């Protein structure tokens, strides 16, 4: 069964993690568009490349600016962000407009499963099944995609 291929922007200031994510994105059948290491670079690339999804770390080379990046991608670029961070507690209640979070450390399988799930959600507007382990959806997106998510039930 063929899944839609997402164009994915990586927003990560640790080069080894960015390279690993690029390989995982390709293995998941998606297209990595590039990598940004700072907030200004991330917003500029998002405006230029129009990714379907941006994988965003909270703490970038210019500080804890990933939350601002996610909000700008959602508000100004028409894109969707997914946080990939060890700083899950730093996320605002509204997830800054992002669709969710994968906490670090993450597994290869977890990232691939999340990308496959999100590819369907973003193209069909509905969850294909239960939210994969390791992915937490923002309450607004869980509701929009009619997805079962423990965070959405407790909100």
Q: How far do the termini sit from each other?
A: 34 Å
How does the helix and strand content classify structurally?
alpha/beta
Tally of contiguous helical segments: 6
Largest sheet: 6 strands, mixed
State the shape.
Answer: globular
Strand order of the main beta sheet, please?
2-1-3-4-5-6
Q: Regions with pLDDT < 50 over 5+ consecutive residues?
A: 150-155
The number of E-state strands comes to 6
Q: Using only CA atoms, what is the Rg?
A: 14 Å
**Residue share in helix:** 40-55%
One letter per element, helices H and strands E, the order comes to EHEHEHEEHEHH
User: How much β-strand is present in the residues?
Assistant: 15-25%
Mean pLDDT: 91
Explain what this protein looks like in three dimensions.
With 155 residues, this protein is an alpha/beta fold. Helix content is 41%, strand content 18%. The protein is built from 6 helices and 6 strands; from the N terminus they run E-H-E-H-E-H-E-E-H-E-H-H. The chain has a 6-stranded mixed sheet, sandwiched between helices. Helix 3 links the parallel strand 3 (53-56) and strand 4. Helix 2 (39-49) packs parallel to helix 3 (66-76). 45% of the residues are buried. Residues 150-155 have low confidence and may be disordered.
């Amino acid at each position: 069964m063929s899944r839609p291929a997402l164009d994915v922007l990586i927003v990560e200031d640790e080069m080894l993690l960015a390279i690993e994510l690029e390989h995982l994105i390709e293995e998941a059948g998606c297209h990595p568009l590039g990598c940004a290491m700072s907030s200004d670079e991330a917003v500029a690339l998002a405006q230029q490349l129009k990714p379907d999804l941006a994988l965003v770390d909270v703490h970038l080379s210019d500080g804890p600016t990933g939350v601002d990046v996610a909000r700008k991608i959602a508000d100004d670029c028409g894109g969707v962000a997914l946080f990939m961070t060890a700083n899950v507690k730093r996320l605002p209640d509204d997830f800054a407009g992002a669709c969710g979070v994968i906490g670090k450390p993450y597994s290869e399988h977890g990232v691939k499963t999340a990308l496959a799930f999100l590819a369907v959600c973003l193209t069909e507007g509905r969850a294909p099944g239960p939210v994969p382990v390791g992915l937490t959806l923002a309450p607004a997106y869980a509701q929009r995609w009619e997805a079962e998510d423990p965070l959405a039930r407790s909100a």
